[in-house]
Amino acid sequence: MIRLYLQLIFWILLAFLAFYYLYIVLSLNGSLKLFD
Question: CB within 8 A of 23, min separation 6: which ones?
Fold first, then answer.
């Protein structure tokens, strides 16, 4: 049960990092402007 919980945390963290990386890349490319 604990292993399943840790695996869930791992996947959530991985997804968060992936979205964060994508956000940084798009921001550097200038094609994503959310805060203008």
Answer: 32
